[in-house]
Amino acid sequence: MITDNDLARRLLPGDGPDEFFLPPLPRLLPVGYHPDAARIEFASNGWVRRMLEPCFDSEESLLLFLRQRNGLYGPLTVPYAEPARAQNIADWYQFVTVIDSFVSDESALGADHVAAADAFAAVVADLRGGERGGGERGGGERGAGTASVYGRAAQDLWRRLTAGMTIRQTERLAASLAAFLRGCTEEIRSKLAARVLDFEACMRVRVDSFGCEFLELLTEYAAGVDMSEPAADGVFEEVHHHGMRQLILVNDLLSWRKEYAQRDTMTTVRVLCEAEGLPLQDAVDRLCALVEHHERAYIAARDRLLSGPHGRTGEVRAYLSGLDHLIGGSQEFEYLTPRYFGDGAVWDGSTSGWLSLTAPVARFRDAPASLRGTRPDRPDRPDRPLV
């Protein structure tokens, strides 16, 4: 088993401060804020308080979560959506982020993967109860009156979202939540066992635990289209592959402060450091190169679709435009959220620089902490290429 000392030595080689340099990422896709972004974010915070407050152990814990600005993820990823749909999407993303937060918390869902799996199975059952109309049910079935806190929130979201979905999309919504919760269970299991997977195995879990199925589905919902049939036929296989990998890898880079502090194992940064033995900076550089590869490959695959027969339909074009905003908006959110940079962090627009792993509140700096004002003869940035 890898000890804490081994982990620190392998992830943070050398005698310098606990930090790394994040190079500029391409950012080739559009970023837009919904015209009602502020109102949607605040209303979504209110929804979290009404529906999910009992999940938090104190008012301060709830406020800490709300200060992370998770309610802005929806308005950033669907800036074109009709306001009511954007609100529903914002609340869904808050819901799954609350779950994700407690998956990483070993005093909550993260304490026991078996208990978490049971809790998640109950949430899916509660969702299905809401699908059938809710209410008390006999015969051991769970209805709205017996649903868990998570289950009642899921039922509320189900009613609002499925009102604007086709039957196939409603089936996919339930399946996407089950996949997300399955990925969360696997993340808990891996962390408790101190198990680090290889790169591709990690990515397979992350596709579930990052919520890729509902990211794609809610992009359709925001655009008012149903891509169930072409998606099932593999029309979007290449754009989804590269687009979702870009999303996951950007998240792994920008969330590394949080994942490192919580000793989470299901992140490609740790995989490269532990499974492949790379120093931290080399792992970061490789992931940045992969981000660029997948972003450019996504754009190329998207353009091939747009120039082919499928691209002649307005529905496909609207969906692909939505994917552009999903990828660009998700990255924008991850630069600005205090969830990754510490409670009290305020984004100044910087997207590259030295980032501390141990400071309570971090920001991108022009120089490493160990060199500022002490070694002007040393370069402020790594001088080696990224690939």
Contiguous uncertain segments of 5+ residues:
1-17, 133-145, 373-379, 383-387
Strands ordered across the widest β-sheet? 1-2
Computed structural class: mainly alpha
The amount of beta strand, in percent, is under 5%
Total DSSP helices: 17
Oligomer: single chain
**How do the helices and strands follow one another from N- to C-terminus?**
HEHHHHHHHHHHHHHHHHE
Structural domain count = 1
State the distance separating the first and last CA atoms.
31 Å
CATH topology: Farnesyl Diphosphate Synthase
| Largest sheet: number of strands, sense, barrel closure | 2 strands, antiparallel
Average pLDDT reading: 89
Report the helical percentage.
55-70%
Assigned CATH superfamily: Farnesyl Diphosphate Synthase
Describe what this molecule looks like in 3D:
A two-stranded antiparallel ribbon has the order 1-2. The longest helix has 28 residues, at 280-307. It has one domain: Orthogonal Bundle (Farnesyl Diphosphate Synthase). It contains 17 helices and 2 strands. Helix 14 crosses helix 15. The protein has 387 residues and is mostly helical. Belongs to the terpene synthase family. It comes from Streptomyces aidingensis. Its cofactor is Mg(2+).
Secondary structure blueprint with pairings:
Layout: H1 4-11, E1 19-22, H2 37-52, H3 59-66, H4 73-77, H5 83-103, H6 113-131, H7 149-162, H8 167-192, H9 199-209, H10 212-223, H11 228-232, H12 237-254, H13 256-261, H14 268-275, H15 280-307, H16 314-336, H17 338-341, E2 353-356
Antiparallel strand pairs: 1-2
